[in-house]
Write a structure and sequence with these properties.
Elements lengths: L1 H18 L7 E2 L12 E13 L3 E7 L1 H6 L5 E5 L12 E4 L2 E3 L4 E7 L3 H6 L7 E8 L11 E7 L3 H14 L2 E8 L8 H7 L2 E6 L7 H11 L8 E4 L2 H14 L3 E4 L35 E4 L7
Parallel strand pairs: 9-10, 9-12, 10-11, 12-13
Antiparallel strand pairs: 1-14, 2-3, 2-8, 3-7, 4-5, 4-8, 6-7, 13-14
The chain binds flavin-adenine dinucleotide and FE2/S2 (inorganic) cluster (FES).
The site of FE2/S2 (inorganic) cluster (FES) has 12 residues, from loops.
């Protein structure tokens, strides 16, 4: 039992260690969007539900009519965390909009408790209010006329792609969704994909199926008869690189959603430059306004 747990931990650490370098040279800012982005609002959102998702995550159902009606797939919100234990938490925390329910005027956010802000957020109760700013950033966009799509999400990165699963269902796009996580009970989005009619491939660290070579082989076999027309990915640099490799092999575009530490989420503080190779004196694109979704393109091989 202990050796199984050690092996699972080793696999998780290997995933994380490989991750940082994987985005080098991969990301480029997307050409101008076809449609204007919605203007963000500052909304005192009501917390309708605050529940557990598996053992690791929490889900907020927020009443925020304008954001629910206007948010585009892959956009995010900044949540101001209320004071906790007499301590103020100054900076809001960025969170993907996991689900949009425009008719009910609600959105869902799923988060993991990782530090000070999310620990305090976990204390919020149904009936409380939360200051939410959004919708923010440039999200995922299906290419005009796309009929099939591969969407890949890992951990809370699944939340960034779920809006596109909603869009695929609404537009009749045939979506295959890879849900990756540490264990089966950790996977986010299984019920959402079932509700939205998307085909799901579940992969986990504990049985090795999420390892990049195994997943790559599985996807090449899955799409042997014909590749998807676009790949959307979020949650790990190594997955973004795998998606870019598949995109290059199949000749299809790849979009990747990134995370960065954010202070404002609005393009003012320049604290969220993307981890991409630029000239040493040149700041990378800002994840909050140029992204979080970027094009992923494999660098040309060195001669
Ligand atoms: C566009 C966007 C969408 C996001 N969507 C979600 C989501 O849907 N669900 C979710 O759980 N999280 C999401 N995040 C990450 C989330 O914002 C951070 O986990 C959160 O801000 C951590 O706050 P904290 O005060 O609890 O942790 P902190 O005390 O600030 O940090 C705790 C640990 O997490 C690391 N960390 C903090 N922020 C980030 C980050 N942005 N990227 C990588 N590491 C970080 C810190 O280095 C530290 O090790 C998103 C981030 C971005 C930029
Ligand atoms: S978070 Fe302030 S510029 Fe991006």
């Amino acid at each position: 039992m202990a050796s199984l747990a050690r092996e699972a931990l080793r696999r998780q650490q290997a995933f994380a260690a490989a991750d940082e370098a994987a985005l080098d040279g991969l990301i480029s800012v997307r050409p101008p969007a076809g449609q204007p982005r919605p203007e963000p609002v500052w909304d005192d959102a009501g917390v309708l539900e605050h529940t557990n998702v598996g053992e690791r995550y929490r889900r907020l159902l927020l009443s925020t009519d304008t954001i629910a009606r206007t948010a585009l797939a892959g956009q995010f919100v900044m949540i101001t965390v209320p004071p906790s234990g007499g301590e103020r938490i100054l900076l809001p925390r960025p969170m993907a909009i996991h689900r949009r329910h425009p008719q009910a005027g609600t959105i869902e956010v799923i988060y993991g408790v990782t530090g000070r802000g999310t620990t305090a957020l976990a204390d919020v109760a149904a009936g409380d209010g939360l200051l939410v700013t959004g919708p923010l950033g440039r999200g995922f966009e299906f290419p005009e006329g796309a009929r099939t799509a591969l969407l890949i999400g890992r951990g809370v990165g699944v939340c960034a792609i779920m809006g596109s699963v909603e869009d695929a269902a609404a537009r009749g796009i045939d979506a295959t969704v890879v849900l990756s996580g540490r264990t089966l009970s950790d996977l986010i989005g299984v019920a959402d994909c079932a509700e939205l009619g998307a085909a799901v491939i579940q992969v986990t660290d504990d049985d090795g199926s999420s390892a990049i070579p195994a997943l790559g082989a599985r996807l090449r076999a899955e799409f042997r008869a014909g590749p998807p027309e676009v790949i959307l990915v979020c949650g790990a640099g190594v997955l973004a690189r795998l998606a870019a490799e598949l995109g290059a092999e199949w000749g299809v575009p790849v979009q990747v959603s990134l995370e960065a530490h954010m202070a404002c989420g609005l393009g003012y503080c320049h604290g969220c430059a993307a981890p991409v190779a630029t000239e040493p004196e040149v700041e990378g694109p800002l994840v909050c306004v140029d992204g979080p979704v970027f094009d992923a393109v494999l660098p040309a091989p060195q001669r």
